[in-house]
Design goal:
Number of strands of chain A: 0
Structural class of chain A: mainly alpha
Helix content of chain A: 55-70%
CATH superfamily of the largest domain in chain A: Tetracycline Repressor, domain 2
Distance between the termini of chain A: 59 Å
Largest sheet of chain A: none
Number of helices of chain A: 10
Strand content of chain A: under 5%
Largest interface: A-B, 63 and 64 residues
Radius of gyration of chain A: 20 Å
Oligomer: homodimer
Chain lengths: 194, 194
């Protein structure tokens, strides 16, 4: 790995672990083993390095959402993506950035976060629309709204898990979302007799 | 307001706005107008002040959840609390603390956050249990799980709103949760013909 890549990877890790405000250029140097002259040769500021690192984290996270598209049952894809193994106590590399006022106040940094969330929402909403069309979800379910609901369950589940230092609330939150989603399947007279 | 209260109130505001890592004792002094000697007379460290301020924020937030208890339809109480006016772009005073590694790594600070979330969960789960008992929600809905789901929708909705600099995703997330909750009402053969 070249020096530039080492700096970006280290900053990506530190943004995830500690956030932006709490990460100093010195910590990046110490962990990456890159010297100060070399660091500033590649990145004029902590903020420039953070921009590259944040883009790197988005590129790392977004492709997984491709599994929301594809053949077969849309609801099965939605359920599989919702229940995908996730490290609840580490949280979301991209979502945690929103909690950093220095990121929120920097239009260029925030734009990376917001476009990642928009791309995720498009994927979720598309799969939910397919599920409604396929008759797997009731027709009064709004895919745009429920896409935000399910994204919020994951992002908020991390908050609950971190608050307790325990992944259980995250798991419960998404199991509860799954049970609500299943309750939103169209009911037939036959299904009532079960 | 006395000096001590002024320090606590100012730190409470700064914890909400900027978090723990990004708030310096100097900022607290500048905003509160309290001098350095007086600050250290009341609080030996930034961390001691943060502990008092975090407790203050919990005391400020928790009483609202009392509206989950009371007379009348449990589901109506749940819906009202879910849809209660909230400033999505400011987020949750208590939940945002989980994003600060310095808080997560401090057992005493984290204990304040985790006990607040436990208290909230108890209130949600109690109301959801009442809704199941009253026949307003299907009997296969797990109140403990769905309590975490609805808490996550709110906490995660703030993340989505902050990512876009727009309260709309928060509103959509909770409207979507509401529609799923309504879909989890027991269906009668009569309701199918509607």
């Amino acid at each position: 790995m070249g020096t530039r890549e080492r700096l970006v990877q280290t900053m990506s890790d530190l943004l995830w672990e500690r956030g932006y405000a709490d990460t100093s250029p010195r910590e990046v140097r110490e962990r990456s083993g890159v010297g100060q002259g070399s660091q500033y040769h590649h990145f004029a500021s902590k903020r420039d390095l953070a921009l590259a690192a944040l883009r790197h984290n988005v590129d790392d996270v977004l492709p997984a959402a491709d599994s929301l598209s594809g053949p077969g049952s849309p609801l099965a894809r939605i359920e599989a993506y919702l229940l995908r193994p996730r490290d609840a106590l580490r949280g979301c590399k991209v979502g945690r950035m929103t909690q950093d006022p220095q990121v929120r106040e920097d239009p260029e940094l925030l734009a990376v976060v917001s476009s990642a969330f928009t791309a995720m929402h498009t994927q979720w909403a598309h799969a939910l629309t397919e599920a409604v069309t396929a008759g797997e979800l009731r027709s009064d379910i709004d895919p745009e709204q429920v896409a935000h609901t399910l994204m919020a369950v994951l992002q908020g589940g991390y908050v609950l898990a971190m608050a307790q230092g325990d992944p259980a609330p995250f798991e419960q939150a998404r199991q509860g979302a799954l049970s609500l989603l299943r309750a939103a399947a169209p009911q037939t007279p036959e299904s009532l007799t079960k």
